[in-house]
Every structure is written in C-alpha cells, then in structure tokens.
Design brief:
The chain is 43% helix and 28% strand. It is of the alpha+beta class and 96 residues long. The radius of gyration is 20 Å and the shape is elongated. Helix 1 packs across helix 2. Strands 1-2-5 form a 3-stranded antiparallel beta sheet. The two termini are 21 Å apart.
C-alpha cells in the first residue's frame, strides 16, 4: 500500500475528504518525527514502539583488502512490534 492508497482508505473509513486525510497523515508523521528527533519514544498501542538509538563508533575491516576503517557513530531508528501485533501475525496464516 502506498501513500495515495493509504490516504484513500483512511478518508473512506473516516468519512473525510482526501485532502483532510492527507493533512491528518502529514500531521501525524510530523509529530512522530519531532518526538523521535527529541529523543523520545513513540508508542502506538496495538502496533509497536519506535525509538532512536545511538550506535557507537566502531572499527570495521574490509574483507577484500583487509583494510581497517573507522565507522563513525550514528543514530538509528528501531521498531519493536507490540505483543498484540505479534500474536495476530503468528496466528493468522496467509493461506487461510
């Protein structure tokens, strides 16, 4: 499902216009992005948890040249699905 399809489905389910649904999605993404950039955790009930983690700098070795290189620290986004979602995915077989 792409963004256009998602907005169409959201507007259909909520009875909004596509323009209002698009504004709703944009607002949600902006709020979520700002919370994560501030170092906060974003929890969406029955879906999962998004968190920004800092990866330390490390040394890596190129397997071909055996040259060692320093990989700088960076921030990564992690996602942990909720138990509700995990159970739903585990119990619902795609062949049903």
């Amino acid at each position: 499902m792409n963004n256009k399809e998602y907005i169409g489905e959201l507007s259909r389910r909520l009875g909004y216009t596509n323009k209002d649904a698009a504004r709703l999605v944009t607002s949600f993404v902006d709020i979520a992005k700002n919370e994560l950039l501030d170092g906060k955790t974003l929890v969406i009930p029955n879906f999962g948890t998004f968190k920004v983690k800092k990866k330390s700098e490390r040394i890596s070795i190129n397997p071909v040249t055996r040259q060692r290189m320093l990989i700088p620290p960076k921030l990564t986004l992690t996602y942990k699905p909720s138990m509700t979602l995990k159970d739903k995915l585990k119990n619902d077989s795609p062949n049903e």
